[in-house]
Design goal:
With 425 residues, this protein is of the alpha/beta class. The chain is built from 18 helices and 17 strands. The structure holds ligand ARJ.
């Protein structure tokens, strides 16, 4: 492990050149974020501010980190999942002088050690995916909140928890719900998760999807994307849900809907995307077919109850990277991918750069808004804040432009018609 006290801790600094190539590849596919870099690198709006982030250390995240740094920020970073760090990318960031504490395969104690090092020098803003950094500040170092202007949160699970915290009056500073921007959840969560989850399952298993019973637990935005792409590959998709409207959407989309108890008996491949714990439990593992493949794509590793699985297993061995074969008392074999951690980031590279481009443009703007509110006496009361709708349109507009696409605009008559309450049949 390469560790320079106070500056970085990564797996192996000599991996930096490979990491740099990956980052350059991502840059070439992230035109919106790169255009923000070009625009604000001249103005240096983050000069004099420290931004601490806790988000998967991938090539896309590196483009965000280096954009913040190019715009004047002092950046410190840790990964938000023990299995999602790309060691090459982490090395390249350390070599570029970023304060980074992240390596693939860390344990829980090391995970929190990394977060704590990233706030040894108090940040002005925090950037989370899953809220572990902001919770560490709130639960263990609440005095830091006096120094912190605000934060941002990347994902659905994190935003849910922060809203609950705000309702209880426990939130100490304002947090932008980046996840809730349309150019985040309606793209990253759907098309990003759809592609990267299948990518992770395929890298870890290399199985044929066509003709398989593919069970998706949870038909939120992430589950919808996974189901759509699995269907496109020829799988027979089965959806399990607890929410009536979500189940209805799944059935009208052409998927089958049933309980997990029923799905467990016939599924070949399982993916959880619910944000809830214990979706697949001991009783389900026991009723599965020989050779069933089980994975999770939700943020936390609580959706598969692997404690119960391990109790039921008489044998376990790693059969391929990110794929453990459990032999049950009943003689059947069950394959668990990426230890039940988010399979798209642990077994593949996460969402493609093209979609993270928009998510991270929102992140960048959230921090810019916080700093500007701080400098201009804006409202910084503790609450969960939505990004403005105009920003979604602006990000989508730049994205379309970089894709070489043009769209129509309304004529003056059409604009007037839209609000003309005298018009009718
Ligand atoms: C960094 C990624 C990537 C990637 O935006 C996505 C989200 O909400 C997550 C929940 O933890 C994962 C995050 N994500 C997906 N792909 N973050 N780089 N390539």
């Amino acid at each position: 492990m390469d560790h320079k006290e106070g500056a970085y801790k990564v797996r192996d600094l000599s991996l930096a050149p490979q990491g740099r190539l990956r980052i350059e590849w991502a840059e070439s596919r992230m035109p919106v974020l790169m255009s923000l870099r070009e625009k604000y690198a001249k103005l240096k709006p983050f000069a004099g501010y420290k931004i601490t982030g806790c988000l998967h250390v991938t090539k896309e995240t590196a483009v965000l980190i280096e954009t913040l740094a190019a715009c004047g920020a002092e950046v410190a970073w840790s990964g938000c999942n023990p299995l999602s760090t790309n060691d090459e990318v982490a090395a390249a960031l350390a070599e570029a002088g970023i304060e980074i504490y992240a390596w693939h395969g860390m344990d829980t104690e090391e995970f929190y050690w990394c977060i704590e090092r990233s706030i040894d020098k108090p940040p002005h803003t925090t950037l989370d995916d899953g809220a572990d950094l902001i919770f560490t500040v709130h639960h263990k170092y609440p005095h830091l909140a006096d120094h912190i202007i605000g934060g941002s949160e990347e994902t659905t699970t994190g935003v849910h928890r922060l809203r609950a915290m705000a309702e209880d009056g426990k939130l100490l500073y304002p947090v932008y719900a980046v996840n809730d921007a349309e150019t985040k959840w309606d793209f990253d969560n759907v098309y990003g998760t759809g592609q990267s989850t299948l990518d992770g399952i395929l890298r870890a298993s290399s199985v044929m999807l066509a003709g398989k019973n593919f069970v998706v637990a949870g038909y939120g935005h992430c589950g919808r994307g996974v189901a759509m792409r699995a269907k496109g590959m020829g799988a027979n998709v089965i959806v399990t849900e607890v929410k009536p409207t979500a189940a209805l959407k799944a059935i009208l989309e052409g998927h089958r809907v049933m309980t997990m108890e029923e799905a467990a008996k016939i599924g070949d491949i399982f993916v959880t995307a619910t944000g809830m714990r214990d979706i697949i439990r001991g009783e389900h593992f026991l009723s599965m077919k020989e050779g069933a493949i089980v994975s999770n794509t939700g943020h936390y590793d609580v959706e598969l109850n692997l404690v119960e699985l391990r109790e039921l297993a008489v044998d376990a061995r790693t059969i391929r990277d990110n794929n453990i074969e459990y032999t049950l008392e009943n003689g059947r074999k069950i394959y668990v991918l990426a230890d039940g951690r988010l399979v798209n980031l642990a077994a593949a590279e996460g969402h493609p750069s093209e979609v993270m481009d928009m998510s991270f443009a929102n992140q960048f703007m959230a921090h810019l808004n916080l700093i500007q509110a701080h400098e201009n006496g804006g409202d910084l009361s503790p609450r969960v804040i939505d990004l403005p709708e105009e920003l979604d349109q602006e990000i989508a507009r730049i994205k379309l432009e970089t894709m070489g696409l043009e769209i129509d605009s309304l004529t003056e008559e059409q604009v007037a018609y839209a609000t003309d309450y005298a018009a009718g049949t």
